[in-house]
Specification:
Layout lengths: L1 E8 L6 E5 L4 E5 L6 H13 L18 E9 L4 E9 L5 E4 L2 E2 L12 E4 L4 H5 L2 H15 L1 H26 L4 H40 L6 E6 L8 H14 L1 H7 L10 E6 L2 E2 H4 L2 H23 L4 E5 L7 H10 L5 E5 L15 E5 L2 E3 L7
Parallel strand pairs: 3-13, 3-14, 8-12, 12-13
Antiparallel strand pairs: 1-2, 1-4, 4-5, 5-6, 6-7, 9-10, 10-11, 14-15
Helix pairs in contact: 3-4, 4-5, 4-7, 5-6, 5-9
Bound molecules: adenosine-5'-triphosphate and magnesium ion.
GO biological process, one term: SOS response
Family: Belongs to the RecF family.
Keywords: ATP-binding, Cytoplasm, DNA damage, DNA repair, DNA replication, DNA-binding, Nucleotide-binding, SOS response
């Protein structure tokens, strides 16, 4: 799919902005703090309803204003999609898809498909397991909104079980209710584990192939879902292994007042030529692995939805060597790409056509270089 246009009112540093996009490549050039990432952030919001930088809607609304508005018009193979968001201080955001207000804001998923790659994504490899769980969860949710509901339920049930564990510590009488929460946690948790395992099984060969190409056959990338629950062939069997793990860990759980087994403790293993890249990879290797995973996600979304997602590349081109830049653009011929960069020269070797370039200066966006504002 691709986006035809974007409209912003009082979003971040923009008063009013209206842009028509190129179906292939759109490059935003400008100095620091001018409003380049803000545009990508607005696009991302129309896909997930959330920002990739903050959980606080207030930060998205222009400092001196009470409301912000975002609208995109997207083209898909068979349909068009219009997504609008209205953000208001101290209110739930209001989302419309094709003119109809959503009763549940999570229904925004599955309309605009977006993959982002930013320097932050290095965290995906470098930081703790929660970043990698988030990667799996976000990607699966985008393709399968029901997964997002399981996750929300799981987190709620987990919180309730943990609270109960703390209470039992003081009053044994609460022990009886624990079974109810145990059953819920294993039921929903097993669904999460199975979906994640499926996701990793599919993303593994895609990312390996892409990684091979980017590294000119030098590196073999392997990704593995690492679960503390034994994955078995059927749902029932996996459920059973979760049940027995939970039983085994009861004593420890009670002592610590928290649930120590389950998908909230899982991880995604990332290996290059057999070496754990999370601990031993160079910065460049880690970045390339993150990139391969993100690009694999593009193929996966295409396979699932028959639409290519939009790719947002925030500040990453200057960090890739020219071969990797070229590979990226060539491999993604059918994908609409939004790039931000501080120097057009960073993209010089790509022969970026004038028609793709937007200049951004102090929340003003123009097709010609802006000398002063
Ligand atoms: N709610 C807001 N209201 C008004 N201005 C805001 C708001 N939030 C952020 N800004 C301003 O937006 C600017 C940052 O925009 P953005 O992150 O898009 O910069 P950028 O062009 O991507 O810069 P860089 O090259 O440094 O990444 C800052 O000047 C910041 O003060
Ligand atoms: Mg930026």
């Amino acid at each position: 799919m691709y986006l035809e246009s974007l409209k912003l009112i009082n979003f971040r540093n923009y008063n009013q902005l209206q842009l028509k996009f190129h179906p292939k490549l759109n490059v935003f050039v400008g100095n620091n703090a001018q409003g380049k990432t803000n545009i990508l952030e607005a696009i991302y919001l129309t896909s997930t309803g959330k920002s990739f930088r903050t959980n606080k809607d207030r930060e998205l609304i222009k400092f001196d204003k009470e409301q912000a508005y975002i609208k995109v018009e997207g083209k898909k193979r068979y349909t068009d999609t219009v997504v609008e968001l209205k953000l208001e201080e101290n209110k739930k955001k209001q989302i419309k898809v094709n003119g109809v207000t959503l009763s549940k804001n999570t229904d925004i998923l599955n309309n605009v498909y977006v993959v982002v790659f930013s320097p932050e994504d290095l965290k995906l490899i470098k930081e703790g397991p929660s970043e990698r769980r988030k990667f799996m969860d976000d990607e699966i949710s985008q393709m399968k909104p029901s997964y997002f509901h399981y996750l929300t339920q799981y987190n709620r049930v987990l919180l309730q079980r943990n609270n109960l564990l703390k209470k039992i510590h003081h009053h044994k009488k609460y022990m009886d209710t624990l079974d109810i929460w145990n059953e819920k946690i294993i039921e929903i948790g097993t669904r999460i584990i199975i979906e994640r395992a499926k996701f990793v099984t599919r993303i593994a060969p895609l990312s390996r192939l892409i990684h091979r190409k980017i590294t000119e056959n030098k590196e073999n990338l392997e990704v593995k879902y690492i679960s503390n629950i034994q994955l078995n062939n059927t749902f029932e069997e996996t459920l059973e292994s979760f049940r027995s793990r939970l039983k085994e860990s009861l004593e420890v759980d009670l002592q610590r007042g928290t649930t120590t087994v389950g998908p909230h403790r899982d991880d995604l293993g990332v290996f290059v030529n057999g070496i754990d890249i999370r601990s031993f990879g160079s910065q460049g290797q880690q970045r390339t692995c993150a990139l391969s995973l993100k690009l694999a996600e593009i193929e996966l979304i295409k396979g699932e939805t028959s639409e290519y997602p939009i790719l947002l590349l925030d500040d990453v081109m200057s960090e890739l060597d020219i071969n990797r830049q070229k590979f990226l653009i060539k491999a993604l011929r059918d994908v609409q790409i939004f790039i931000t960069t501080t120097e057009r020269e960073h993209l010089n070797d790509l022969n970026v056509d004038k028609e793709y370039v937007f200049y951004v200066k102090n929340a003003i966006v123009r097709k010609e270089k802006i000398e002063s504002v």
